Amino acid sequence: MSSDLSVILPRVLIVSRRSVRKNKFVDFVGEYHLDLIVGYGAVPVIVPRVSGVHMLLDSFEPIHGVLLCEGEDIDPSWYEEDTSGLSQEELEEIRRVHASDTAIDKEKDSIELRLAKLCLERNIPYMGICRGSQVLNVACGGTLYQDIGKELSRKAPESQRVMHINYDDYDGHRHKVKIVENTPLHSWFKDSLEEEERGGEKMEILVNSYHHQGVKKLAQRFVPMAFAPDGLIEGFYDPDAYNPEEGKFIMGLQFHPERMRKQDSEEFDYPGCPFAYQEFVKAVVAFQKKVNSLTCVPKSLRLNKEMENKRKIIVRSFSLAKDLYTAGRGNEMNPSKESELEAGAEFLESNTALSVQQEKRLKQMGATVRNAGSYIERLKLNEEREKMARNVMGKMKAEQLTELLAFYHTMGQICSEVLEKKLHELVNNNSDFSITS
């Protein structure tokens, strides 16, 4: 049962974070993430943060979803952000206060940015939590504040300043965020959003906060879903790539909904907290189905009696052709068998677009018809056409030949795509026919 499930369930890649335990490096992923992914029907696959893994990501295929979460600050060189706005004393203070986050991990940066870009290229569902949201923004051309407290909060009015990390009350600390209407966050937390008579809907919830950096310039493709009172974007998504039922999900959340739980309890602060994971996995499952539908190999068709008889006649014709080819041109064939060659010749005439693999397969079945009259006639005609084409092209200029080559290359690609579509339709039609019969 478990082995079957490992094949059936979709795979969600999660990159580990490196830490030190007993003077040794260890890799870990927060268990809340894993619990929710498994609980909603996917398999978490942990990508270790070790040197060289960013070059081995193909080995983790198939990838049906990516969840990136906690970690250190992203190297500013990835988004070309300098620190000229901060004094040396301020930078030293930031490194001292946030020592566990300011130790940049370039290997983790490489792995996660490559995964994020892979998701964007292939429309693989992606959810970024905390650092994962920052990775997504940077991967799309956005930038980050080096330190929210120094660059943003101190410029805000006193009433709008926010403490985005509280080491004295790490898990218990909360601050307000305002939810943007008609966004996924609004849908997930709508039952918990407070309302006020004065000023209309308040649209606020309390979220946890474990970061000193955040989105500065939001990448163009994204739309904000929530703001802190100081103006920091606390959540964003791509509306053109969000439809969980169709396998679309590209989103970043600065807070940790999986850790928003009541004190000394596993109960969530709000019923909407786990919805991000629920909808993410829904998209992952749909994406897997979509990929499987494109890559699955059709089962062997069951032919009706008439089609099976035709198949046997063609196979017989190919077998005779093979015997003729093996025996050589000089040997005469029994006139009664010459008519049997016609079935194979007609088949080849009506199926002129054979790939190299198809030709090899036909040869294995005895489909060599080099001495069949109709085949030889067609071969001579093709040779004459080729000779004429060579004469014409020999008189053409290099520029003309280059343009001609480009044209036929394009036509070849179009032909290949149309042929693949027609063959796919033929398989489906035959499958439907065999089922109904």
Give the structure's gist in a few sentences.
The protein has 437 residues and is α/β, with parallel strands linked by helices.
Distance between the termini: 35 Å
List the domain count as a whole number: 3
CATH class of the largest domain: Alpha Beta
> From the coordinates shown, what is the CATH architecture of the largest domain?
3-Layer(aba) Sandwich
- Into which percentage range does the β-strand content fall? 5-15%
Q: How would you describe the shape?
A: elongated
Topology as H/E string?
HEEEHEEHHHEHEHEHEEEEEHHHHHH
- Classified in CATH, the superfamily of the largest domain is Class I glutamine amidotransferase (GATase) domain
GO molecular function, one term: transferase activity
Keywords: Glutamine amidotransferase, Transferase
Protein name: Putative glutamine amidotransferase GAT1_2.1
Fold blueprint:
Elements: H1 2-8, E1 11-15, E2 17-21, E3 24-28, H2 31-39, E4 43-47, E5 65-68, H3 88-97, H4 99-102, H5 106-122, E6 126-129, H6 131-139, E7 144-145, H7 148-151, E8 175-179, H8 184-189, E9 204-207, E10 214-215, E11 223-227, E12 233-237, E13 250-253, H9 275-295, H10 305-327, H11 335-350, H12 356-364, H13 373-394, H14 398-436
Parallel strand pairs: 1-4, 1-5, 5-6, 6-13
Antiparallel strand pairs: 2-3, 7-10, 8-9, 8-11, 11-12, 12-13
GO cellular component, one term: cytosol
Organism: Senna tora
Keywords: Glutamine amidotransferase, Transferase
